[in-house]
Amino acid sequence: MNRIRRLLRRLSRNSSGTAMLEFALSAPLLMTAGLWGVESANQAIVQMRISQAAVLIADNASRVGEESLLGDLKLYESDINDVFYGAHIQTGGTIDLFDNGRVILSSLETVPGSDGDKQYIHWQRCMGKKTFNSTYGNTGDGLTTDFPGMGPTGQEIIAFDGEAVMFVEVAYDYQPLISSLFTHAGTLKATAAFNVRNKRDLTQVYQRDPTTPDPIANCAVYTGVTAPAV
Predict the structure, then answer these.
(1) Digitized pLDDT (tens) for each residue of the chain, 230 residues in all
(2) From 11, 120, 167, 178, which residue has the greatest number of CB atoms within 10 Å?
(3) pTM, rounded to two decimals
(4) Where along the chain do its domains lie?
(5) Are 189 and 169 contacting, i.e. CB atoms less than 8 angstroms apart?
């Protein structure tokens, strides 16, 4: 018994394992904080890529078109498909934008014959597997009802008479780098808008060859992007 008491007294005075014990207690907290920081940084990068994709699509959609004999640029369905595929190439395979998200491209214009006083959405094209509806309007909105434009309330973007604005909405289901335990991001969103650069024929979106029409990026269909036909 005396030997056991002496052993216990020596152990009670021994502090050689204090640092190890403190590390063992703090390690889970440090690891959790580190993993949370990595996930937060990744979320910020993905949000930046989503925002850049929205700007890229709106910018390219405002530039595409083929000059006709009348002088106004004609926009073709193949042009829109190329814009979507270009965004797929630019964002790379790291976020799989169209597999995990949805892009909605809207043509915001003025109602014909309204002298530019009324806004409406002439057409929309969509791409992506995510189920997501436009936050700011659908095709035809503004033709029979008051429509202030597209964008957050009080900050709506409008088109001028005879012109069009390419308005893009992107919604993306965030894919955690480590685990969903370290993020509550859910759906990341971004918007962008560009005025059409040159004078465009706004009557419709054309087909290059009506006998063999190009696919239309229908907003009622939820599919990923495909490479354009060569």
Answers:
(1) 667 666 656 656 655 555 566 666 666 776 766 767 788 888 899 999 999 999 999 999 999 988 766 678 899 999 999 999 999 998 876 789 999 999 999 999 999 988 878 999 999 999 999 999 999 999 999 998 899 999 999 999 999 998 999 999 999 999 887 666 667 778 999 999 999 988 899 999 999 999 999 999 999 999 988 877 66
(2) 167
(3) 0.84
(4) 25-195
(5) yes
Q: Which amino acid is at 4?
A: I
Instruction: Of 115, 105, 78, give the one whose Cα is nearest residue 194.
Output: 105
